[in-house]
Amino acid sequence: MNSSTPESSAIPIPPDPYHRQEALPWRNPKPSEDDPAALARVQAIVKAANYRVADADTDFLRRDDLRAVRLQLDYLKAESLLTEHRIEHTIVVFGSTRLCEPAAARRKVEALRAALVADRGNAQLERRLAVAERVLAKSHYYEVAREFGRLVSEANKGSDDHTVIMTGGGPGIMEAANRGAFDVGAKCVGLNINLPHDQYPNPYVTPDLCFSFHYFALRKLHFLLRAKALVAFPGGYGTLDELFEVLTLIQTRKIRPIPVVLVGERYWKKAVDIDFLADEGVIDLEDRELFWSAETARQIWEGILQWHRASREPFPC
């Protein structure tokens, strides 16, 4: 320092970032000797809902006029964390939550058969047994989805620019695909949805990559933002909703085309008659070519790779 610099201009010691030597006036309530009722009134004020900090006030955030903010938060939380974890490419797997692993499906059938023996002629039990037997017949798709999750994840070993399995994070087919990635120690993503009744994510999603959404729309957006393929196993309303949104976006070219694989040709031909739609003139013939069918994990994976080779776009596998 120059010797001519006045001593009063010396740089002060930095203040403590959290504490003052003397508290500011608003750190202490009005003394009771000045107003005996002051403290009670202050306590009533700070306990009031409107005094909460906005981002900690969940009642405020749930207001109808705050929907735009909630939409932003629903998008930004997953987007920020997926970016932090360097999740850039995904293969999305949809399918029924009810298609459990074969052993579990078999146990349910056996329990219903035993119940029906004890209560012969019970029409409700007969119906439940018939449905359980149909679920058991399709339960092999759980193993197909699990093997597919393994195939995709094994292909990524040692790669920085890799593709990960992404599901809705729930049970059934989603669990199976996540479990396949888990089997080989790979990361995988689950995009769960907050519903009015209790529900849990499946135990095979990577903990840091499991998200809970309020809005179905934002969840479906995140399904597609990084998707390099969509694989749809037999499913119900949710699977159909997600599948047809993707097909509509590809049909209208709102997104770049991606492979869409329907697993279980027999199921899908009965669930949705695409040829009928084309014959009725409500879709074009070329719209039948937006997807194809497969039965095994190897067929699904090799078909996706072949599609991307034909598209001449790089595919990180």
Fold and architecture overview:
There is one protein chain. The chain is α/β, with parallel strands linked by helices. The chain folds into two domains: 70-100 and 140-311, Rossmann fold, CATH 3.40.50.450; 102-135, no CATH class. It has helices spanning 38-47, 58-61, 67-84, 102-118, 123-138, 140-155, 173-183, 216-225, 237-251, 265-271, 274-279, 297-311; strands at residues 89-94, 163-167, 188-193, 210-213, 227-232, 260-263, 292-294. A seven-stranded parallel sheet has the order 4-3-2-1-5-6-7, sandwiched between helices. Strand 5 (227-232), helix 9 and strand 6 form a beta-alpha-beta unit. The model has no long low-confidence stretch (mean pLDDT 92).
How would you sum up this structure in a few lines?
Helix content is 46%, strand content 11%. It is of the alpha/beta class.
> CATH class of the largest domain, anyone?
Alpha Beta
Low-confidence stretches: none
Number of domains: 2
> Main β-sheet, in a few words?
7 strands, parallel
Series of secondary-structure elements, N-terminal to C-terminal: HHHEHHHEHEEHEHEHHEH
- Report the strand count: 7
Task: Report Rg.
Answer: 28 Å
Structural class assignment: alpha/beta
Number of separate helices: 12
Q: How do the strands of the widest beta sheet line up side by side?
A: 4-3-2-1-5-6-7
Second rung of CATH, namely the architecture of the largest domain: 3-Layer(aba) Sandwich
Helical content stands at 40-55%
Question: What distance separates the N and C termini?
Answer: 61 Å
Mean of all residue-level pLDDT scores: 92
Strand content range? 5-15%
- The name CATH uses for the topology of the largest domain is Rossmann fold
Shape call = extended
